[in-house]
Amino acid sequence: METHPGKTIASRKLAENAGEFLIGNDLRVTRLGYGAMRITGEGVWGPPKDRTEAVRVLKRVVDLGINFIDTADSYGPNVSEEIIAEALYPYPDGLVIATKGGFDRTGPNQWKENGNPAHLRSACEGSLRRLRLEQIDLYQLHRIDSKVPAEDQLGVLKDLQTEGKIKHIGLSEVSVKQIQHARKIIDVVTVQNRYSIADRGSEDVLEYCQKEKLGFIPWFPLAAGKVGTEKKETPISRLAARLKATPSQVALAWLLAKSPVMLPIPGTSKVAHLEENVAAANLRIDASQMSELGSEARAS
Questions:
Q1: N- or C-end of the chain: fewer Cβ atoms within 10 A?
Q2: Do the beta carbons of residue 174 and residue 144 sit within 8 Å?
Q3: In the predicted model, is pLDDT for residue 164 greater than 90?
Q4: Comparing C-alpha atoms, which of 124, 104, 128, 11 is closest to residue 65?
Q5: pLDDT for 230
Q6: Mean pLDDT of the chain
Q7: Is residue 297 a part of any domain in this protein?
Q8: pLDDT at 10
Q9: Structural domains in the chain (count)
Q10: Average pLDDT for residues 81-99, to the nearest whole number?
């Protein structure tokens, strides 16, 4: 098998080289997953320009050994979940599909928090129908809506879990204090915050998740595609040149080396880009290289 990190790799199980993580003590996932926001139209609104390619991407995700796909009812809205079911149902054994609820969409790039318990219940049940599932493995609260008591938002998720519609519950864009409060009401197994080599604002949340053995899912793990686009030379570009990899691959490998609870979910609408991203699973960043990039890996 070709293992050069900068090449397109055809291996069926390449993603497994990134290692695994156990979510909630029973969902074993590849640490390099796939984020399905990009298989929608511009502004995360409407259908993708090339639906056939979107279906090809999802099928290739599975071919490459990824068994963790992250989506949301608000992606499209509904479009991402519908295409996932179109491409992959009936789902292969072991595939974990995580989705989210808690936003209303009124147009391209427009997002409005809605933590009303009735909305969250409706969103969850809609996701179940679109994904053709009887139970969602990991259901995440997209945001804690400041207009609604957190206890009410978390309470309806707990009810849905009791009813068997949700297996595990995760949170998104939360502080350590919010996680601690939520854990008094529900069992939190993952946290999804914005984080990347270029955006480390959730460092304290990552530290908390590692201490508590909660999965940390960094969204925008490539800083929305900005990593590697700088015209000037950077520590990432210099290391990428030495390793014969792309800056994006280095950024993903950095995330994997940063913490054993890290679960990056880079997204794309193109098969070639997907294969490039997953090839980062073969790239190893050592302690000196982490230091060179301005960080240290956290021991497990």
A1: C
A2: yes
A3: yes
A4: 11
A5: 62
A6: 92
A7: no
A8: 44
A9: 1
A10: 98
Tokens coding 81: 């979940």
- Within a domain: residue 296? no
SS (H, E, C) the chain: CCCCCCCCCCCCCHHHHHCEEEECCCEEEECCCEECCCCCCCCCECCCCCHHHHHHHHHHHHHCCCCEEECCCCCECCHHHHHHHHHHCCCCCCCEEEEEECEEEEECCEEEECCCHHHHHHHHHHHHHHHCCCCEEEEEECCCCCCCCHHHHHHHHHHHHHCCCEEEEEEECCCHHHHHHHCCCCCEEEEEEECECCECCCHHHHHHHHHHCCEEEEECCCHHHCCCCCCCCCHHHHHHHHHCCCHHHHHHHHHHHHCCCECCCCCCCCHHHHHHHHHHHHCCCCHHHHHHCCCCCCCC
Q: What is the dihedral of CA 100, 102, 106, 107, to 10 degrees?
A: -40
Question: pLDDT for 13-39, tens place per residue?
Answer: 899 999 999 999 999 999 999 999 999
CATH of the domain at 40: 3.20.20.100
Evaluate whether residue 257 is within a structural domain: no
Helix axes 51-63, 271-278, angle to 10 degrees: 30
Task: Give the catalytic positions in this structure.
Answer: 75
Say what the pLDDT of residue 3 is: 38
Q: Which residue has the tokens 């156990």?
A: 22
Would you say residue 299 has pLDDT above 70? no
Which residues form the domain of 45?
14-226+262-267
CA distance 94 to 13: 14
pLDDT confidence bin for 224, thresholds 50/70/90:
low
